[in-house]
């Protein structure tokens, strides 16, 4: 298993995207959640989390970007 320093958001983001492409959506959402916790202004993580949640059919867990404080 790939070990990731939780402060290395770029590496975490790349792994989350890879997990999503491999169809490992639950793991991808988990990583996107961690990334957003570290940096809640990272729009690309918010958008990709939303996409993965939609693939899982979990629309109820999706928060519109306009409802998040991005700045």
> Strand tally, please?
0
Q: Helices and strands: which structural class?
A: mainly alpha
What fraction of the residues are assigned to beta strands by DSSP?
Answer: under 5%
Query: Tell me, what's the shape?
Result: globular
Main β-sheet description: none
End-to-end distance:
34 Å
Identify low-pLDDT runs: none
What's the SSE pattern? HHH
Helix content: 55-70%
Averaged pLDDT, please?
82
User: What is the radius of gyration?
Assistant: 12 Å
Number of helical segments with 4 or more residues: 3
Please describe the topology of this protein.
Elements: H1 9-21, H2 25-38, H3 43-55
Helix pairs in contact: 1-2, 2-3
What does this structure look like?
This protein is mainly α. Helix content is 56%, strand content 0%. α1 runs antiparallel to α2 and α2 packs antiparallel against α3.
């Amino acid at each position: 298993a790939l070990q990731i320093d939780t402060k290395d958001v770029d590496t975490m983001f790349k792994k989350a995207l890879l997990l999503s492409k491999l169809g490992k959506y639950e793991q991808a959402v988990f990583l996107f959640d961690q990334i957003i916790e570290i940096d809640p202004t990272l729009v690309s993580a918010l958008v990709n989390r939303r996409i993965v949640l939609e693939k899982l059919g979990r629309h109820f867990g999706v928060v519109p970007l306009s409802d998040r404080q991005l700045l």
